[in-house]
Design a protein that fits this description.
six-stranded mixed sheet, eight-stranded mixed sheet, alpha/beta
Length: about 375
């Protein structure tokens, strides 16, 4: 089976949508020999910052001589980037091999990818597997191991149709990755700290709270959380923040800021560096679009809205309608690539609102 044939098989499972629950993936993992039980797992959940913390922990472990697997999503450059060992994507041949061998299952796309990740990391005998939750925690496909180091990042309202309508409900869902008699490293979350205290007490788990000044910026808190996780693993080493693409990063020429954050807290984390920007924005309709734009749009002198190629995408016209409440100059251009080139002509210096938008236009930014 070729890589493209295999990729089509797993991508076709997107039609199943999101189906929370662990029964399907547990069945597939059992068929694989339960590879997750052979791994030392650093499991990371949270609303914002979990990708940055995951990359930072993995990079630090790699730099200190550990063979380190990293599982993150969504992808930007290549589908294979979601599964890495020491910074190298899983090869096309390896991914095709696992898809062909285990294609007979009733899993969703993310469930199958997660199972393949655990099998691949076990087969390659990684020293550590750094695993970022896809969504939530308790019912997330990644939550299948018996023990781990649980790391919780910033908690905010997101995916409310799956995780709950309140920040307390969402926190409890994220706390679902905490295992009996294990350790949890907690990013400063004063609103919901008591929930993690309660869960850790119930599970006889050790809770390590990251301490910092309340005015510490978002990325500073992410760095402190990653450093605490690394130290908990027994590494007394310096930790440098690793910022993955599309997390307040820039293009090669430094002219355009790119951020895939899509909720209100992500907007607030971005707000402090905004100033009279020309922005290209695409978003999903199941997000708090008005809340996000109410923070970002007032700092923009011009906004170009676009329709991302995703069934969940909000139309450019509807985005324009909402953004126009907060910015006087908003133009809708349906096709993302066309929108990008139009925006460039107008002085584009910000792309934000969706990782899916960035994935669609990233090659045009090289």
């Amino acid at each position: 089976m070729t890589y493209n044939e295999a990729l089509n098989i797993i991508l076709n499972k997107q039609s199943l949508g999101i189906m929370p629950g662990l029964a399907r993936i547990s069945k597939l993992l059992e068929q694989m020999g339960n590879p997750q039980d052979k791994l030392k797992i650093i499991h990371i959940a949270g609303t914002n910052g979990k990708g940055t913390v995951a990359y930072t922990v993995a990079d630090t472990l790699k730099n200190n001589g550990c063979k380190t697997g990293l599982f993150t999503s969504p992808w930007i450059h290549s589908y294979r980037e979601q599964i890495q060992i020491d910074g190298e994507y899983i090869s096309k041949d390896d991914l095709a091999y696992y898809i062909e061998k285990y294609q007979q299952n009733d899993c969703t796309e993310f469930e199958m990818l997660t199972a393949i990740m655990y099998k691949y990391f076990a087969d390659k005998k990684v020293d550590y597997a750094v695993v970022e939750c896809g969504m939530g925690g308790l019912n997330d496909s990644t939550n299948v191991e018996k023990e781990n180091l649980a790391v919780i990042t910033s908690i905010a309202l997101d995916h409310t149709n799956f995780l709950g309508d309140t920040i307390e409900e969402i926190a409890l869902e994220k706390a679902g990755i905490i295992k009996e008699n294990c350790t949890c490293v907690l990013y400063p979350n004063p609103q919901v700290e008591r929930i993690f205290e309660q869960v850790c007490e119930e599970k006889n788990a050790k809770l390590i709270k990251v301490l910092c000044d309340k005015d510490e910026p978002f990325f500073g808190k992410n760095l402190l959380t990653a450093a605490e996780a690394v130290q908990t693993l027994g590494f007394n080493v310096g930790v440098t923040l690793y910022t993955p693409d599309a997390r307040q990063t820039g293009t090669a020429d430094g002219k355009i800021l790119i951020d895939g954050g899509h909720n209100v807290d992500a907007a607030k984390a971005l707000e402090w560096i905004l100033n009279d920007n020309v922005a290209l924005i695409g978003m999903m309709k199941d997000k708090n679009v008005d809340g996000y734009l109410s923070v970002v749009a007032p700092h923009c002198k011009k906004i170009i809205t676009t329709t991302v190629n995703n069934p969940r995408a909000m139309s450019a016209l509807e985005l324009k309608r909402i953004a126009s409440k907060y910015c006087d100059d908003v133009i809708a251009v349906d096709a993302p690539v066309a929108a990008l080139y139009y925006a460039k002509e107008k002085g584009l210096d910000l792309i934000c609102g969706s990782f899916y938008l960035i994935r669609e236009i990233i090659k045009e930014l090289d």
